[in-house]
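# nightly structure sweep
# worker-07 picked up a monomer target from the shared queue
# config: single-sequence mode, recycle default, output format = structure tokens
# input follows
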Amino acid sequence: QEKIEAFEEQGIIIDDQLESGVSDMCNYGSYVAQSSRREGRIEGAIESLRDLGIAEREIAEKIKVKYNLTDEEVDEYLCVNA
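# output follows
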């Protein structure tokens, strides 16, 4: 709603289609931010577990369960953060 009001203050006429587009973009921005925070938490967990000397297979199992990841996602996180 803030974005819509900001447009209107600038004299931009807001129709239903533009309002819907603004809403979609705000929702997408929130999704990207939330997804990035989640990835950061997973990567931080992997780094911390490695620093503690935990075996890779145990790390894989811990992050799989904690973050509800598929085997493919676990492999991707472990390879990217190796």
